[in-house]
Design goal:
CATH architecture of the largest domain: 3-Layer(aba) Sandwich
Number of helices: 16
Number of domains: 2
Helix content: 40-55%
Distance between the termini: 69 Å
Strand content: 15-25%
Shape: flat
Bound molecules: adenosine-5'-triphosphate
Length: about 550
């Protein structure tokens, strides 16, 4: 009985293994067949010519030649299909990628005259031409001329066509009477004709423009962020550009405004900057100040890397007041000595990161709003040279919501609701070349940015999960906790008396700034904060 059961179990396991093997084999064969069909479709002329040749040979009675022609027709399809199915990466690198790029280049070169004409880049003029020839007349020949009207086209010169990865680059020189703006205006129809996902124009010289067509969208796949290890001050790597190159955002000396509707992925950029600076925070050369007006849900996850956190408008005003005092003290110290602040451990770069700026500048009571806007405007106007920079995220870019929009020196447009919003965020005329309002909701973290040279680029931020943020916060905690001004009436709420508390647990030690010591004992000057009483526990406890 027992041996029967064991035998039945063995045969059941065998049957399951056989079924699994069969399923895998069928799947593999289906994938090979699909790849072979793709290959045949891409080389249809080659296949048809050889099949035709094989048929002719067979009709002529040459069996062997006919078989060889068929092997030549379908052999490469089979080899490519097996290669592509089993080793897709090497197939793409060695075979499919170079062949595809060569096809793009050939297509542009071959069709340039047609493309340029259809995209409105060429002009034509009609001229009369006269042809001369010999005509017979009464037995003798004489020279006769014939006049006809011909159309002569003049195209901009296609100087070079290059490819790299999924990019097709066309270097175009204007024809006489044309401007680079004409070339840029034709980039959209050129991209549509080439079936490109996106495009951008870079002006190389006063008469040469490089049109970069993105033939395959490399931003469709979300990519998780990596825990930063090196100390970078000037810039952080936020994700990738549409050509696959890393997307670096300059932090030092810039105030950054991130605009995107709900769910557009502002969190990725917020954490890309804050977590990207975390090693520098731990080293003591950067100090992060967090204002999270979504009740602290965003900053709460990685609170450890912040020196100070505010989670409601009242706390935010207190935090801004404190930061402004740091800025003023630094300004007094720098006056007449240096013009641009250089971050050091004793004198770090201060980064104020605000999530949901609108709560502070539009959706709170009038007095708090006014005070917050005043403080923020001062920080924005004076901070750049004094080593205090701002990163602010907001959903609604309208002037009545973000009145300080013009004081930010760089903007990132995530998914927006309308072309009008794109214009507000990126500037006049940008809705056509950087259409942030057309970003798919399925691609959160995708944004349009305007480069320093005025060119635009599409980028996608890497994805910061809560777990990753927590890991970064645990790995790179801020060695300093800023004490913020509190109203004397309720001093017990926050760790008063420890202005700059040096954390005992980890990281390099950073001494308190003289300013913070001076301000420690002063009563809070800001009307709204002191009026409303003490900020809650959210402040000062990083
Ligand atoms: N870079 C990214 N890559 C992939 N998915 C992302 C990325 N960024 C965000 N997401 C996804 O989009 C969702 C919304 O992101 P996020 O919370 O950052 O949006 P938000 O703009 O801050 O929205 P809200 O203003 O409503 O808080 C996330 O839960 C996540 O699933």
């Amino acid at each position: 009985m027992g041996s029967n059961l064991a035998a039945a179990r063995v045969s059941f396991v065998d049957a399951r293994a056989a079924a699994a093997l069969l399923t895998r084999t069928v799947r593999f064969l289906r994938a090979v067949l699909r790849a072979a069909l793709v290959w045949v479709r891409g080389h249809v002329r080659w296949v048809l010519a050889l099949v035709g040749f094989a048929v002719i040979l067979r009709l002529l009675g040459n069996q062997i030649g006919s078989r060889e022609a068929l092997v030549l027709a379908f052999g490469p399809a089979l080899v490519s299909a097996v290669w592509a199915t089993c080793w897709p990466v090497s197939y793409e690198r060695v075979c499919a990628g170079p062949a595809r790029r060569a096809r793009w280049r050939r297509w542009v070169r071959k069709n340039w005259a047609h493309l340029s004409r259809e995209c409105g880049l060429s002009v034509s003029r009609t001229t009369k031409s006269r042809t001369f020839g010999l005509a017979p007349k009464e037995g003798s020949r004489f020279v006769a001329s014939q006049s006809q009207t011909v159309t002569v086209w003049s195209h901009p010169r296609l100087m070079d066509v290059t490819t790299a990865g999924s990019l097709l680059r066309l270097m175009i020189r204007t024809r006489t009477g044309q401007t680079v703006q004409d070339l840029e205006a034709a980039a959209a129809p050129l991209a549509a004709a080439a079936g490109a996902h996106a495009y951008r124009c870079v002006q190389m010289t006063p008469s040469v423009v490089e049109v970069v067509l993105v033939m395959q969208d490399s931003l469709t796949q979300a990519r998780p962020a990596e825990i930063p290890e090196a100390v970078y001050l000037n810039a952080v790597t936020l994700g990738r550009r549409q050509d696959g190159a890393p997307w670096h955002l300059t932090v030092t000396g810039r105030h950054t405004l991130v605009v995107g509707c709900s769910g557009s992925g502002k969190g990725s950029i917020f954490w890309g900057v804050c977590a990207g600076l975390a090693p520098a925070v731990r080293a003591g050369v950067v100090r992060l100040w967090g204002v999270d007006l979504k009740r602290g849900v965003e900053v709460g996850v990685g609170r450890g890397i912040f020196s100070a956190v505010a989670t409601n408008p009242i706390e935010a005003v207190a935090l801004l007041t404190r930061l402004l005092s740091v800025l003023e003290e630094r300004g007094n110290r720098m006056a007449g000595n240096i013009r641009l602040h250089q971050p050091t451990q004793a004198d770090p770069l201060h980064v104020l990161a605000i999530d949901e700026l609108a709560v502070l500048t539009a959706y709170t009571d009038a007095e708090t709003k006014k005070e917050a806007s005043r403080l923020l405007a001062e920080i924005l106007t004076q901070g750049r040279a004094l080593g205090v920079v701002v990163l602010a995220c907001v959903q609604d870019p309208r002037k009545e919501v973000v009145g300080l929009r013009g004081l930010f020196t760089q903007t990132i447009a995530l998914r927006l609701r309308s072309a009008e919003e794109t214009r507000m965020v990126l500037g006049d005329g940008m809705a056509a070349v950087a259409p942030a309002h057309r970003i798919s909701p399925a691609l959160p973290g995708t944004a349009w940015v305007v480069e320093e040279d005025g060119s635009t680029d599409r980028v996608r931020a890497d994805w910061w999960s809560d777990q990753l943020v927590r890991q970064v916060a645990a790995l790179h905690p801020s060695p300093v906790v800023e004490g913020l001004p509190v109203a004397p009436a309720q001093p017990a709420d926050i760790p008063v008396g420890s202005d700059d508390v040096t954390r005992a647990d980890s990281g390099p030690r950073v001494r308190a700034t003289p300013a913070s010591r001076q301000r420690k004992s002063r009563p809070h000057k800001t009307g709204s904060a002191s009026r409303k009483g003490s900020p809650s526990n959210g402040i000062g406890a990083a």
